[in-house]
Amino acid sequence: MKPTRDLILLCILLFAFSGSATGQSGTAVYITKKDFPVAASEADLDLFQYGMTQNHLALWMKLRQEGRGKLSETGREVVIIEEKAPNKVKVRTTDSSQEFWTIKEALELK
Predict the structure, then answer these.
(1) 109 pairs with which residues across the strands?
(2) Would 6 be classed as within a structural domain?
(3) DSSP code of residue 19
(4) Least enclosed by CB within 10 Å: which of 2, 56, 73, 89?
């Protein structure tokens, strides 16, 4: 009888400290920096960056007006959910289920 009770207690402790009970996945939390490219999709991020680096103002403004790209805000807490070479990341905010693409340089480890 005692081994069963010990096993149950061990399972409860593992669950409690794994982060599953609190909804945390154990991934690192990052803080966004200001004025870095942010986009709804990976393709839009590429276009937005192209518009910024090549001074293609019409493309850059079109993406902004359509809500497909913008510049990042300071202080949003996010977790990385996908990484693509060379420096693109898909992130999710910690306070909602909002997801977006940005570059690694836009994030600072909390």
Answers:
(1) 30
(2) no
(3) S
(4) 2
Q: Evaluate whether residue 19 is within a structural domain.
A: no
Total count of domains within the chain: 1
Q: Is the dihedral of CA 71, 74, 79, 80 positive or negative?
A: positive
pLDDT at 7: 54
Nearest to 61 by CA among 27, 52, 98, 90: 52
In this structure, are residues 88 and 107 in contact, taking their beta carbons and an 8 Å threshold? no
**What's 50's domain CATH number?**
2.30.30
Determine the residue type at 73: E
Assess if residue 18 is contained within a domain.
no
Local confidence band at 23 (pLDDT 50, 70, 90 cut-offs): very low
Cis check for the bond before 86: say yes or no (omega within 30 of 0): yes
Cβ 30 vs Cβ 103: under 8 Å: no
| Two tokens, residue 16 | 């409690």
